[in-house]
From TrEMBL:
Lineage: Bacteria, Pseudomonadati, Bacteroidota, Chitinophagia, Chitinophagales
Residues in 6-phosphogluconate dehydrogenase NADP-binding domain copies: 2-154
Pfam families hit by this protein: NAD_binding_2 (PF03446)
Keywords: Oxidoreductase
Protein name: NAD(P)-dependent oxidoreductase
Amino acid sequence: MIAFLGMGLLGSNFTKALIKKGEKVQVWNRTASRAKALESVGAKAFDNITDAVKDVDVIHIVVKDDAAVNEVLAAAEPGMKPGATIIDHTTTSAEGAVERTKAWKAKGFTYLHAPVFMGPQNALESTGVMLASGDQNVIAKVEPALAKMTGKFINLGPQEGKAAGMKLIGNLFLISLTGGLTDMLSLAKAHDVSFDDVKGLFDNWNPGAMVQARLQRITSGDYTNPSWELNMARKDAGLMMKKASQAGAPLNVIPSVAAEMDKWIEKGFGNSDWTVIASDVVNGKK
């Protein structure tokens, strides 16, 4: 028997997938109707959270944030079976994950943070990526079951909280990507280029394939032998901002990047590779 706490888009689809795999799942949600809706696919819903976790060996939870995880687990604790394992799929702070691991261990429970790079459809189809880090004995014990819930299970090693950090790092990329794409579409409108034409560009040009090489260039710390000089990149950023401003479609991301470019040009790095703007991060300077 498994308990699942939090019947949002991920939790509800995780539950449906587990049931399809033959698992018996008890569910709870603060809005009880969301849990009740899962009874139609075979889940057993409870209004009282302590009843939902009673006699259950493994408790999964996916809610909003650190505060919600702490609040829900505190409410569930009186009903928990001694020695139960808690698997937390919530995106949280690394500090929160470390603190919960320690606190629940002191109470005689096992807590493992296992955040995911998944959308609702991934949870339903058991695709996407699930991360975990911490006690390797714990991970070895639960990995077979967790691997069935995802397309790829990644064990990041013994460092507590590393999975939480990696999840936020990945999400930062996704947020930055969307911000950049939004600027790109604004510039397309400024040039009277249709969104279909923009999408057509990416049918023939895949900048995503450059990510690994760009990371290698940035983290190498070598910004000589430029493939794109900072001065030239800054010139292009200026053209972008000017055109967007003229069309009444101001950009959000590029102005901040341009301001950082200006700082490095003022330091005398205009002829360096434009990735020099990451130099302080790579070299540990403030």
